[in-house]
Amino acid sequence: MPQRPALFPVLLAGATLLLVVHGLGRFIYTPLLPWLVEDGLLSVQQGARIASWNYLGYLIGALLALRWHRVAQIRLSLPWALGLHILSSLAQTQAESADTLSALRLLNGISNGLVFVQAPSLILEWLARQQRVSSSGLVYLGVCVGLVLSSVLVSLSDGLLVDADRWWPAALLSVPLAWWGWRQLSQLDLPIETAPDPTAKVPSGRLLDRASTPLFLSYAGAGMGYILPMTFLPMVARLQVEPGDFLVDSSWLVVALATLPSPWLWNRLGAVLGDTLALRLSYVAQLLGVLGALLIPGAPGILLCAVLVGGTFLGTVLLTQRLARTLHPHQGPRLSAALIALYSLTQLAGPWLTGVWLGMGGSLHSAFWLGAGALLWGLGWMLLVPRRR
């Protein structure tokens, strides 16, 4: 009997790539933003607009992944996406204007969207071939470690680096990690796709049906619901928490630490309860977290939001991706890309609407009501998704 291949190196490689593009690429901007504002490089409104450019890039990357969804196409485009991440990250260290940084964050978002869809999709197809799909959620541990690492890098470099130089630690660390992660995934044993048998019944290519449409609509709410606290919580903490409180400088660290057990926890809950029920619970937890920041004054509300949103949003991602493949197993990578594209479209709207709200005289704190409404929308549609194991 042939020996089953080891999971750990494959999952570690995928986790490493997600650490690079999501932790050191996308979300390091969140703890950096207050310092970039304090340095005088950006205003709060400019920071919100730059975040929107990054999310637009993420949408473009996800749409490209929807176009390049076959295994052979992923093998070709994934290393180019990682190269784009490296180049844009290094160039950010020289960005002294908001316009330049906007353009670079757009490129960084494109690479992030491609890698975030394609790397887990490639691994999920490999796991399905090994009949070990239940381990798929563990690849998202890379995002968790990346969030912690981004917080640590920003904290350690404070006082040593200012302005655009604050990007250097993440840019330099991305180079060896991206190279190693792709080197491992490039060796995955996946069959070359062949032309379908013309006499065989061709599975439906529809992405939307009675089972999947509510899942898509629900996931749209998840994208807008989580992105506001995940982008602006450190700024809100500085505005809402008493000076000298631990959370003024460390709210992002709390978010990052809360994410660490979340892929294992939600992966396990999905296996025990079924992905549908576990996904509903994840929406409830995120909604309570955002409401905590809105309704509980000061540090307790910020802490509750950091723990519940940080500990849940990745669970929503991994459970949705796995449930979608259960509904349409014959088009896993394509379905994953479509979901991420929708997710990125609605999360793009979050910072943009926040910028509009600030321009109208609204507060950053009150903009969180948009996130709460989006999560309530997502929970409502999630109740219509059929339960599957």
Residue share in helix:
over 70%
Question: Number of domains in the coordinates?
Answer: 1
How many helices in DSSP terms? 15
Number of strands: 0
Fraction in beta strands: under 5%
For the termini, the CA-CA separation is 29 Å
Mean pLDDT: 85
Cα gyration radius (Å) = 20 Å
Determine the structural class based on helices, strands and strand pairing.
mainly alpha
Outline of the structure:
With 389 residues, this protein is mainly alpha-helical. It contains 15 helices and no strands.
Describe the structure.
- By secondary structure, this protein is mainly α.
- The chain has one domain: MFS general substrate transporter like domains (Growth Hormone, Chain: A).
- Helices cover 74% and strands 0% of the residues.
- It is built from 15 helices and no strands.
- The chain has helices at residues 8-26, 29-38, 44-67, 71-92, 98-129, 141-157, 168-185, 212-240, 246-259, 262-273, 275-295, 298-310, 313-327, 332-359, 368-382.
- Helix 3 packs antiparallel against helix 14 and helix 10 (262-273) crosses helix 11 (275-295).
- The two termini are 29 Å apart.
